[in-house]
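General statements about sequence and structure are easier to judge against a single worked case. Part of our work consisted of pairing the sequence of a single chain with a tokenised description of its backbone. The amino acid sequence and the backbone structure tokens for this protein are reproduced below.

***
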Amino acid sequence: MLHDKYDGFTVTLSLDEEDDWIAHFEELPNVSAFSSTPEDALKELEIAWEAMKESYRKHGEPIPISPAKKDYSGHFNVRVDKRVHCALAVEAAQVGLSLNALVAQKLAQSVKASHRIHHKT
């Protein structure tokens, strides 16, 4: 297994208006670094992340875990407007699915569509 120097966090590289490369974690926007080249910006981000983790350790705080590295149960509760709840329940009955199955299906379709859009850019 390869050593993950960014601990599973998603890194974004972009060029700013002053032609510096900025590297940051999408999930932790306060962790970032910049340099004149993308490679150096990534190296600086690695240094910044190690310093952040050391600071967490020093202060006895837990080091953030990337959402991609967490374990998930597959269960969560969502509060929605009662009209949305009603509309979903009616739609589920019309298509012969449980409300849970319909919502799970809609969420999965949304995540897939979002993933396709995100990776095209």
Observations:
- The longest strand covers residues 11-15.
- The mean pLDDT is 90.
